[in-house]
Protein backbone atom coordinates (compact mmCIF):
# COMPACT_ATOMS: atom_id res chain seq x y z
CA UNK A 1 0.00 0.00 0.00
CA UNK A 2 1.54 3.36 -0.99
CA UNK A 3 2.45 5.79 1.74
CA UNK A 4 0.22 8.92 1.87
CA UNK A 5 2.00 11.81 0.24
CA UNK A 6 3.14 14.75 2.35
CA UNK A 7 1.82 18.15 1.16
CA UNK A 8 4.52 20.40 -0.21
CA UNK A 9 5.01 23.86 1.26
CA UNK A 10 3.35 25.36 -1.85
CA UNK A 11 0.30 23.10 -1.47
CA UNK A 12 0.01 23.93 2.21
CA UNK A 13 0.21 27.67 1.48
CA UNK A 14 -2.64 27.33 -1.03
CA UNK A 15 -4.99 25.66 1.42
CA UNK A 16 -4.49 27.50 4.68
CA UNK A 17 -4.08 31.05 5.92
CA UNK A 18 -2.48 32.76 8.87
CA UNK A 19 -5.32 34.46 10.74
CA UNK A 20 -5.02 37.22 13.33
CA UNK A 21 -8.67 37.24 14.35
CA UNK A 22 -12.23 36.40 13.33
CA UNK A 23 -14.74 38.66 15.01
CA UNK A 24 -18.30 39.97 14.80
CA UNK A 25 -19.02 43.70 14.74
CA UNK A 26 -20.82 46.40 12.81
CA UNK A 27 -19.30 47.34 9.48
CA UNK A 28 -17.72 50.72 10.13
CA UNK A 29 -16.92 51.80 6.56
CA UNK A 30 -17.86 51.50 2.88
CA UNK A 31 -21.37 51.16 1.49
CA UNK A 32 -22.47 48.46 3.95
CA UNK A 33 -21.74 50.61 6.99
CA UNK A 34 -23.86 49.64 9.98
CA UNK A 35 -24.58 46.04 8.94
CA UNK A 36 -23.60 43.25 11.36
CA UNK A 37 -20.54 41.70 9.73
CA UNK A 38 -18.01 38.98 10.41
CA UNK A 39 -14.44 40.15 9.87
CA UNK A 40 -11.66 37.73 8.92
CA UNK A 41 -8.39 39.51 9.55
CA UNK A 42 -5.38 37.93 7.83
CA UNK A 43 -1.90 38.29 9.28
CA UNK A 44 0.92 40.15 7.57
CA UNK A 45 1.30 43.27 5.44
CA UNK A 46 4.12 44.50 3.17
CA UNK A 47 3.17 48.15 3.77
CA UNK A 48 3.83 50.39 6.76
CA UNK A 49 1.34 53.27 6.57
CA UNK A 50 1.93 55.99 9.15
CA UNK A 51 -1.70 55.90 10.33
CA UNK A 52 -2.10 52.12 10.40
CA UNK A 53 -4.54 51.06 13.14
CA UNK A 54 -3.93 47.30 12.84
CA UNK A 55 -0.21 46.98 13.44
CA UNK A 56 -0.99 44.05 15.73
CA UNK A 57 -1.77 42.09 12.52
CA UNK A 58 1.76 42.47 11.12
CA UNK A 59 3.00 39.38 12.97
CA UNK A 60 1.80 36.33 14.84
CA UNK A 61 -1.59 34.86 14.06
CA UNK A 62 -2.68 31.25 13.80
CA UNK A 63 -2.58 28.94 10.77
CA UNK A 64 -6.10 27.79 9.87
CA UNK A 65 -7.35 25.73 6.94
CA UNK A 66 -10.25 26.98 4.88
CA UNK A 67 -12.82 24.70 6.53
CA UNK A 68 -11.86 25.98 9.98
CA UNK A 69 -12.17 29.59 8.82
CA UNK A 70 -15.61 28.91 7.32
CA UNK A 71 -16.67 27.33 10.62
CA UNK A 72 -15.37 30.36 12.50
CA UNK A 73 -17.46 32.65 10.32
CA UNK A 74 -20.60 30.50 10.46
CA UNK A 75 -20.87 30.62 14.25
CA UNK A 76 -21.99 34.27 14.15
CA UNK A 77 -24.89 33.79 11.73
CA UNK A 78 -24.20 37.04 9.86
CA UNK A 79 -24.98 37.73 6.20
CA UNK A 80 -21.97 39.96 5.52
CA UNK A 81 -18.32 38.91 5.66
CA UNK A 82 -15.31 41.17 5.18
CA UNK A 83 -11.85 39.75 4.54
CA UNK A 84 -9.26 42.27 5.67
CA UNK A 85 -5.75 42.56 7.11
CA UNK A 86 -2.96 43.36 7.19
CA UNK A 87 -2.92 42.91 3.47
CA UNK A 88 -5.05 39.83 2.75
CA UNK A 89 -3.85 39.35 -0.82
CA UNK A 90 -0.30 38.84 0.45
CA UNK A 91 -1.39 35.28 1.27
CA UNK A 92 -1.88 32.86 -1.62
CA UNK A 93 -5.01 31.18 -0.25
CA UNK A 94 -6.94 34.43 0.06
CA UNK A 95 -8.60 34.03 -3.35
CA UNK A 96 -9.85 30.47 -2.66
CA UNK A 97 -11.19 31.67 0.70
CA UNK A 98 -13.15 34.47 -0.98
CA UNK A 99 -14.70 32.02 -3.44
CA UNK A 100 -15.67 29.55 -0.72
CA UNK A 101 -17.31 32.32 1.32
CA UNK A 102 -19.33 33.35 -1.75
CA UNK A 103 -20.28 29.72 -2.42
CA UNK A 104 -21.55 29.51 1.16
CA UNK A 105 -23.99 32.33 0.41
CA UNK A 106 -22.35 35.25 2.18
CA UNK A 107 -22.13 38.79 0.82
CA UNK A 108 -18.37 39.14 0.74
CA UNK A 109 -16.13 42.18 0.57
CA UNK A 110 -12.35 42.41 0.40
CA UNK A 111 -10.36 45.27 1.92
CA UNK A 112 -7.02 45.63 0.16
CA UNK A 113 -4.32 48.27 -0.21
CA UNK A 114 -4.08 48.85 -3.93
CA UNK A 115 -0.44 47.79 -3.78
CA UNK A 116 -1.07 44.25 -5.05
CA UNK A 117 -2.83 42.85 -8.11
CA UNK A 118 -6.59 42.39 -7.72
CA UNK A 119 -7.12 40.28 -10.83
CA UNK A 120 -8.52 36.72 -10.59
CA UNK A 121 -10.75 37.64 -7.64
CA UNK A 122 -14.18 36.02 -7.65
CA UNK A 123 -16.51 38.51 -9.40
CA UNK A 124 -19.08 38.13 -6.60
CA UNK A 125 -16.67 39.82 -4.18
CA UNK A 126 -16.97 43.57 -3.62
CA UNK A 127 -13.48 45.04 -3.66
CA UNK A 128 -12.71 47.98 -1.37
CA UNK A 129 -9.33 49.32 -2.44
CA UNK A 130 -7.41 51.76 -0.24
CA UNK A 131 -5.37 53.93 -2.59
CA UNK A 132 -2.49 55.30 -0.56
CA UNK A 133 -2.11 59.06 -0.21
CA UNK A 134 1.18 60.93 0.29
CA UNK A 135 0.37 61.29 4.00
CA UNK A 136 0.37 57.52 4.39
CA UNK A 137 4.07 57.34 3.52
CA UNK A 138 3.31 54.55 1.02
CA UNK A 139 2.06 56.47 -2.03
CA UNK A 140 4.85 54.98 -4.13
CA UNK A 141 3.32 51.49 -3.67
CA UNK A 142 0.09 52.31 -5.52
CA UNK A 143 -0.69 50.17 -8.56
CA UNK A 144 -3.07 52.26 -10.64
CA UNK A 145 -3.66 49.29 -12.93
CA UNK A 146 -6.02 47.95 -10.23
CA UNK A 147 -8.61 50.34 -11.65
CA UNK A 148 -8.82 48.07 -14.72
CA UNK A 149 -10.24 45.34 -12.49
CA UNK A 150 -12.84 47.44 -10.65
CA UNK A 151 -16.56 47.76 -11.39
CA UNK A 152 -19.38 50.10 -10.26
CA UNK A 153 -20.04 47.77 -7.30
CA UNK A 154 -16.47 48.22 -6.04
CA UNK A 155 -15.16 51.10 -3.94
CA UNK A 156 -11.94 53.10 -4.00
CA UNK A 157 -11.06 54.63 -0.64
CA UNK A 158 -8.79 57.58 0.12
CA UNK A 159 -7.73 58.01 3.75
CA UNK A 160 -6.78 61.69 4.00
CA UNK A 161 -4.37 63.15 6.55
CA UNK A 162 -4.46 66.83 5.60
CA UNK A 163 -5.30 69.39 2.90
CA UNK A 164 -2.36 68.25 0.73
CA UNK A 165 -3.74 64.69 0.72
CA UNK A 166 -7.18 66.02 -0.18
CA UNK A 167 -5.90 67.99 -3.15
CA UNK A 168 -3.81 65.01 -4.32
CA UNK A 169 -6.88 62.74 -4.16
CA UNK A 170 -9.04 65.32 -5.91
CA UNK A 171 -6.52 65.44 -8.76
CA UNK A 172 -6.49 61.63 -9.04
CA UNK A 173 -10.27 61.62 -9.47
CA UNK A 174 -9.85 63.72 -12.60
CA UNK A 175 -6.65 62.11 -13.88
CA UNK A 176 -8.15 58.58 -13.89
CA UNK A 177 -11.86 59.52 -14.17
CA UNK A 178 -12.40 57.35 -11.11
CA UNK A 179 -16.06 58.26 -10.38
CA UNK A 180 -16.94 56.77 -13.79
CA UNK A 181 -15.34 53.46 -12.77
CA UNK A 182 -16.43 52.79 -9.20
CA UNK A 183 -17.70 54.37 -6.01
CA UNK A 184 -15.28 56.75 -4.28
CA UNK A 185 -14.91 57.08 -0.51
CA UNK A 186 -13.15 59.98 1.24
CA UNK A 187 -12.31 59.29 4.86
CA UNK A 188 -10.39 61.47 7.38
CA UNK A 189 -7.42 59.77 9.01
CA UNK A 190 -8.45 59.11 12.61
CA UNK A 191 -7.05 61.81 14.91
CA UNK A 192 -5.25 63.67 12.09
CA UNK A 193 -7.95 65.47 10.11
CA UNK A 194 -11.16 66.94 11.49
CA UNK A 195 -14.12 65.21 9.80
CA UNK A 196 -16.08 68.46 9.54
CA UNK A 197 -13.16 70.12 7.72
CA UNK A 198 -13.08 67.35 5.11
CA UNK A 199 -16.85 67.53 4.70
CA UNK A 200 -16.64 71.27 4.02
CA UNK A 201 -13.93 70.76 1.36
CA UNK A 202 -15.99 68.09 -0.42
CA UNK A 203 -19.07 70.31 -0.50
CA UNK A 204 -17.11 73.39 -1.60
CA UNK A 205 -15.62 71.51 -4.54
CA UNK A 206 -18.86 69.58 -5.25
CA UNK A 207 -16.96 66.33 -5.52
CA UNK A 208 -18.86 63.17 -6.54
CA UNK A 209 -17.54 61.20 -3.58
CA UNK A 210 -18.98 59.62 -0.46
CA UNK A 211 -17.79 61.07 2.85
CA UNK A 212 -17.39 58.55 5.63
CA UNK A 213 -16.11 58.28 9.17
CA UNK A 214 -15.17 55.04 10.88
CA UNK A 215 -18.37 54.15 12.73
CA UNK A 216 -16.75 51.43 14.85
CA UNK A 217 -14.25 53.93 16.30
CA UNK A 218 -17.02 56.37 17.17
CA UNK A 219 -18.82 53.58 19.01
CA UNK A 220 -15.97 51.73 20.72
CA UNK A 221 -12.75 53.70 20.14
CA UNK A 222 -9.59 52.50 18.46
CA UNK A 223 -9.45 48.97 19.89
CA UNK A 224 -8.74 45.57 18.28
CA UNK A 225 -11.61 43.24 17.50
CA UNK A 226 -14.11 46.04 16.86
Automatic annotation (TrEMBL):
Q: Give the matching Pfam families.
A: Radical_SAM (PF04055)
Q: Which domain of life is it from?
A: Bacteria
The entry's keywords: 4Fe-4S, Iron, Iron-sulfur, Lyase, Magnesium, Metal-binding, Queuosine biosynthesis, S-adenosyl-L-methionine
Entry's Gene Ontology BP terms: tRNA queuosine(34) biosynthetic process
Taking every annotated instance into account, which residue ranges of this chain make up the domain Radical SAM core? 32-222
Q: How is the cofactor bound?
A: Binds 1 S-adenosyl-L-methionine per subunit.
The EC number(s) given in the record are 4.3.99.3
Q: In which pathway does it act?
A: Purine metabolism; 7-cyano-7-deazaguanine biosynthesis
Q: Which GO terms describe its molecular function?
A: 4 iron, 4 sulfur cluster binding; carbon-nitrogen lyase activity; magnesium ion binding; S-adenosyl-L-methionine binding
Name the enzyme's class.
lyase
| Record-listed Mg(2+) binding positions | 54
Binding residues for S-adenosyl-L-methionine, per the UniProt record? 51-53, 86
Per UniProt, [4Fe-4S] cluster binds at: 45, 49, 52
Q: Which reaction does it catalyse?
A: 6-carboxy-5,6,7,8-tetrahydropterin + H(+) = 7-carboxy-7-carbaguanine + NH4(+)
Residue positions annotated to bind substrate are 26-28, 41, 84
* UniProt xrefs under InterPro entries: 7-CO-7-deazaguanine_synth-like (IPR024924), Aldolase_TIM (IPR013785), rSAM (IPR007197), rSAM_QueE_gams (IPR027621), rSAM_sf (IPR058240)
Which cofactors, by name?
S-adenosyl-L-methionine; Mg(2+); [4Fe-4S] cluster
Assembly state and interactors? Answer: Homodimer.
Role description: Catalyzes the complex heterocyclic radical-mediated conversion of 6-carboxy-5,6,7,8-tetrahydropterin (CPH4) to 7-carboxy-7-deazaguanine (CDG), a step common to the biosynthetic pathways of all 7-deazapurine-containing compounds.
The record's listing under PANTHER family reads: 7-CARBOXY-7-DEAZAGUANINE SYNTHASE (PTHR42836)
Q: Which family does it belong to?
A: Belongs to the radical SAM superfamily. 7-carboxy-7-deazaguanine synthase family.
This one is known as: 7-carboxy-7-deazaguanine synthase
Amino acid sequence: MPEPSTPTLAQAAASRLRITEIFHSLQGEADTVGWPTVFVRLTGCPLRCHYCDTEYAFHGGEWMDLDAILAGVEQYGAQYVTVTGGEPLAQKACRPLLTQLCDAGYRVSLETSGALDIDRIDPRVVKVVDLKTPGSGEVGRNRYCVLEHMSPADQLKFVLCDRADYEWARDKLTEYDIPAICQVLFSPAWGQLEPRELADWILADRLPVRFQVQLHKLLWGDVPGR
